[in-house]
Write a structure and sequence with these properties.
- With 160 residues, the protein is mainly α.
- 82% of the residues lie in helices and 0% in strands.
- It contains six helices and no strands.
- Helix 2 packs parallel to helix 6, helix 4 packs across helix 6 and helix 5 runs antiparallel to helix 6.
- The model has no long low-confidence stretch (mean pLDDT 90).
Length: 160
């Protein structure tokens, strides 16, 4: 696969990661579609194995997400800025402490946004807990699954 196509696949995967954070955008499906596109063009055992594993993982993520309490975004003061901070924190955590760093990075991003908005530690921590209960857990589960898939894709491209 040539470099421009790899960049386009990477762009679709990036849009999928961002889409997880934006309500109404099928981020998980964009990540899966980008991986399918790459697998169809790459046609190697590694690409097909990664597609099968990613499909299974993303289906499990959807099942887990459906088991979590319903999202209640109207109950918390979560803003698009909160989603940006949470996503950036998860991505940074995922890179700095591979895989497991996404969870504390996500929560840390929400906390930082709330701390900047509210000023004090107590209010920010209470607001962070409310955001995580209302929408954060389901978004975190979906984002974590997509980050695993994108991370595996990056590793496969680097290895191949």
């Amino acid at each position: 696969m040539d470099v421009p196509q790899l960049l386009l696949v990477g762009l679709v995967l990036l849009f999928g990661l961002v889409g997880v954070l934006v309500p109404g955008v099928p981020g998980t499906w964009l990540v899966w579609a980008g991986l399918l596109w790459w697998s169809l063009l790459e046609r190697s055992a590694l690409s097909w194995s990664l597609l099968v594993a990613a499909t299974a993982l993303l289906l499990v993520v959807q099942a887990v997400k459906w088991q979590l309490p319903a999202r209640r975004p109207h109950e918390v003061p979560a803003t698009p800025r909160t989603a940006v901070f949470a996503g950036a924190g998860a991505l940074l955590g995922f890179v700095l402490v591979p895989v497991v760093g996404a969870v504390p990075g996500f929560v840390g991003g929400v906390y930082l946004c709330e701390r900047l908005r509210l000023g004090g530690h107590g209010e920010a921590w209470a607001s962070t807990r409310a955001v995580m209960r209302a929408v954060g857990t389901s978004v975190l589960v979906e984002l974590f699954g997509c980050l695993l898939v994108v991370g595996a894709w990056v590793g496969a491209v680097a290895a191949g």
